[in-house]
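Lay summary. Proteins are chains of building blocks that fold into shapes, and those shapes determine what they do. In this project we predict the shape from the chain. Here is one chain we studied, written as its sequence of building blocks.
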Amino acid sequence: MTVSDRRREISDLLLQKGKVKVGDLARRFQVSTETIRKDLLELEAQGFIKKNKGSAEVLVETSASAYSRKSEKYIETKKKIAREAARLIPPHSVIFIDAGSTNYQLARQLIMRKDIIVVTNFTPIAELMNANEIKVILIGGEIRQVSGATTGMLAAYCIDHVHADLAFLGTSGFLDSSGPCVENFPEADVKRRMLQNAAKSYVLADSSKASTKAIVKYAEWNEITGLLTDDQLDCRVMKNLENEVNVITVNTEEKE
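And here is the predicted shape, written in a compact code that computers can read:
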């Protein structure tokens, strides 16, 4: 594990737990306590944490960390998908990241990427980026209570005035559909506009979404650059998808 990977994992733990002990981190990563102290000093310098004697804690409790704790379903698979997605982002990119738990995991992979600009309609992602001094543009609009995403005319206006290099989009499911779907028209409109205003677009979806139906399709698969999912996708579904879109799979059996 590289230094940057270890520090990213430490950041993840802090976001999940709020506070961690130096000794626990040293045992987890099999390094000395002095090495962990250096990691924490670096994260403290970034304004992300507050280092105490023998421990560290998140500097500010944000809705991002609260959201993280509520989004644990398929969490390890989502993290692996997010890591693979992060590898697709070249230096100095402008990227759309829409709302959703897998996209939030992608945002957590980017907290060391000072070279990028993130444009998002999801407050937890915006807070996470801002806390780590990543340049972020929060799209305005009406906040939907269920998803926490901003939608509506203001959101549409903002998106239409940005040209991004990549868009990372979520989906509620795509059972019996020729493309990724969501549960309502306002969020479908946001995703559609992000897709149209980005040079490349990727859908991030764990394999459970293939057996979940949602009512509003926001794109055909052949309009999407790639689908990032996991290797538990049904073989027949995989074959059908591969005829329409580039499918990138992560290995769920691979150890962290």
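What the prediction tells us: The mean pLDDT is 89.
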